[in-house]
Amino acid sequence: MTDWVLRLIDAGGYWGIFVLMVLENVFPPIPSELIMGIGGIRVGQGRMAMEWLLLAGTIGTTVGNYFWYLIGHVLGFGRLKPLVDRYGRWATLEWRDVEALDRLFGKYGQIVVFVFRFMPALRTMISLPAGLFRMGHVKFLAWTAGGALIWNIILAYAGFVLGRNFSQIDKYIGPAATLCVVGAVILYLWRLATWRPKG
């Protein structure tokens, strides 16, 4: 994966960073750690400017998350009840759980979106419920961009400091991502097997 990311960044420059960060948030298997880390390396080599790298990465992240937010927003809270009633067993959800999530987003939606930006497995997933529960567009974009900017600064400066050695992290990111996915599937299957509706 590292070679493909490198080629796209070197061919597309800041546009390559933007496209990769959009894709990373629409198709999470592409790790932002690798994209922004390589961007940081290019800054250290004098081939990119840090401010433009961060701008491209943050806008790309925000656009990718907005894609899932809009899907949730179009689907809407009102259309969710028939789906939960019919398929809630497979999502291990009851309508009371959905109402609790709605109250959570009503009170703490912006904080939830901001904090989840720092959680690798969940930072994209949180955009869908943010749209479903009608978090405001401006609030969503502002808190997503703020969290993304901080995360991207950390990753880019890690690449800048570590230099070429950062590319070796891909050897660990791949297996770690696979382990997270396998763990999530196991947890889901366990919850599916043991879940019983309370209502």
From TrEMBL:
Keyword rRNA-binding: no
Domain VTT: 30-159
Keywords for this protein: Cell membrane, Membrane, Transmembrane, Transmembrane helix
The keyword Zinc is assigned to this record: no
Main location: membrane
Location relative to the cell: Cell membrane
Mode of membrane association: Multi-pass membrane protein
Chain segments annotated as transmembrane: 12-31, 52-71, 111-133, 140-160, 172-190
Pfam families (UniProt xref): VTT_dom (PF09335)
Gene Ontology CC, one term: plasma membrane
Name the record gives this protein: VTT domain-containing protein
Organism in which the protein naturally occurs: Sphingobium xenophagum
